[in-house]
Design a protein that fits this description.
The protein has nine helices and ten strands. By secondary structure, the protein is of the alpha/beta class. It folds into two domains: 81 residues, 60s Ribosomal Protein L30, Chain: A (2-Layer Sandwich); 138 residues, SPOUT methyltransferase, trefoil knot domain (Alpha/beta knot). The strands form two sheets. Strands 7-6-5-9-8-10 form a six-stranded parallel beta sheet, with helices on both faces. A four-stranded mixed beta sheet has the order 1-4-2-3.
């Protein structure tokens, strides 16, 4: 089928972002994204009606073709392909920075937390999991398509922020307790095993840590959820 072949090419080129499964597809149809294709392997009146309301005609395909498009071991009955959203970089007040966070589940979870807690943007470096990868999108509950997200050279970005916003770095221990700072700030979370790099550490205004009752440290996604909540004020 020509549409499936075109969709596979677009996915390989990362020219589209896949939303897989009924819940994410319905959300995607409501969020004002720019759909490219909507594939269904079974009739779903609600999905079809919502799609037609915004001028999208679903393409019915076989389960075999759905498996060719899906990133899941058990393909869903619905896949919505949308254009990657583009955001304008602004003077954001509260920013989350991810340096070398390589697990897409962690990246997605942190984006979801940041979005739900009202943070303004997420910046990642090129070594972090891509915010639009299928696993990241699923882990973020689709919010990686709603939260302004930028992939940048973080050292240059952080240097440009010096003096304009406070730069906080997260560490397993030895830092100050997280507390909402005055004015704008950026909070940096590092790699799952290595943490924040030395060059980035030299640009920090403050080191912060969670006081632990037991154990050595939390995973980065769990730590981020606590720290972002405490910092939001």
């Amino acid at each position: 089928m020509k549409a499936v072949q075109e969709a596979r090419k677009l996915l390989q080129e990362r020219a589209v972002v896949p939303l897989e499964g009924r819940h994410l597809v319905l959300d995607g149809l409501n969020w004002g994204l720019k759909p490219v294709y909507l594939f269904l392997s079974r009739e779903d009146p609600e999905v079809i009606k919502r799609a037609e309301n915004i001028g999208i005609k679903p393409v019915l395909i076989s389960e075999k073709n759905m498996a060719r498009l899906s990133s899941l071991k058990t393909p869903p009955g619905e896949i919505l392909l949308v254009e990657p959203p583009l955001w304008k970089e602004e003077d954001f007040k509260r920013v989350v920075v991810l340096e070398g966070v390589q697990d897409p589940t962690n990246v997605g979870s942190i984006i979801r937390t940041a979005y739900c807690l009202g943070y303004d943007a997420v910046f990642t470096d090129e070594t972090s999991a891509h915010p639009f990868s299928p696993k990241t999108v699923r882990a973020s509950a689709g919010y990686s398509l709603r939260m302004p997200t930028f992939r940048r050279n973080l050292l240059e970005t952080l240097k440009s922020w010096k003096g304009n916003r406070k730069i906080l770095g997260t560490f397993p221990s030895g830092g100050d307790s997280p507390a909402s700072p005055e004015g704008g700030f950026a909070v940096v979370f590092g790699n799952e095993s290595r943490g924040i790099g030395k060059e980035t550490e030299n640009l920090l205004d403050q080191r912060i840590s969670i006081s632990m009752e037991r154990g050595e440290s939390l995973g980065v996604a769990s730590a981020a959820a606590i720290i972002l909540y405490l910092l939001k004020g």
